[in-house]
UniProtKB/TrEMBL annotation, chains A, B:
It comes from the Bacteria. It comes from Thiobacillus denitrificans. This is ArsR family transcriptional regulator. CDD domains: HTH_ARSR (cd00090). It holds the Pfam family HTH_20. Signal peptide: none annotated. Keywords: DNA-binding, Transcription, Transcription regulation. InterPro entries: ArsR-like_HTH, HTH_ArsR_DNA-bd_dom, Metal_resp_trans_reg, WH-like_DNA-bd_sf, WH_DNA-bd_sf.
Length: 112, 112
DNA sequence: TCAACGTTTCAAATATCATTGAAATATGGA
DNA sequence: TCCATATTTCAATGATATTTGAAACGTTGA
């Protein structure tokens, strides 16, 4: 995972509305949520929500798929895990300061 | 860990200079680095560095201690771990989507 | 085709952040 | 005490982010 990518991912999460959105999606799991439902749950106005979803999408923290007239958003667990892995990488010069493991969730994949 | 705290921590890391600073501190471990040394390693100008260190410090991502005329900065591993734990919390509604463990490093403590 | 619904785009206003250089502060040694 | 070193503060500038409402877009069902 590149530093630039990590900064983008962190920036995507470093905002009240987006963190709320992302957590809602993480907690609902792979089924995801329609944009309108996210708006209801979080109280974020549709246009503002769309802006933040695009931001999260651009950071690859969420994915979307059209379903009828709904757009379903889901958390990108693989990116989340890559992000978490990056932050603990090379901790203490690579010495085993303590057992480090990569947090994982369903649908996780490889990361660099 | 409160949402507000998490946003602050994420925002602290979501910036090129600060991520570089933090990673340098993570990799050097508990021994830490003097401000001037961080400036050398990262190429960040002293005044800018000081700004970012204050930001990281305010987010409780780093700690500092005076040592002679040097100020030694160290990564706050406990906060980092709390942060990582928060992001994986309640994943998929609390269902065991896969083994989730809290990444850890030396000197880690409790978190909420 | 038409109207309703769900979502996104756009432009403008406001707020916040990052960088710079100069000056200030504090520590240690001659 | 005086000077050099290490770090921080300050003010100003430029750049980015966030929110809002109105309008546009695409999908569905009548």
């Amino acid at each position: 995972m590149e530093t630039k990518t990590v900064v983008t991912a962190l920036a995507a999460l470093a905002q009240d509305s987006r963190l709320a959105i992302f957590r809602a999606l993480v907690q609902v799991g792979p089924a995801g949520l329609a944009a309108g439902r996210i708006s209801e749950l979080t109280g974020i106005a549709p246009s503002s929500l769309s802006f933040h979803l695009k931001e999260l999408s651009h950071a690859d923290m969420v994915s979307s798929q059209q379903s009828g007239r709904f757009v379903i958003y889901t958390a990108n667990f693989s990116t989340m895990n890559a992000l978490l892995g990056f932050l603990t990488e090379n901790c203490c010069g690579g010495n085993p300061c303590s057992p480090v493991c990569t947090p994982a969730c369903a649908t996780s994949k490889e990361s660099t």
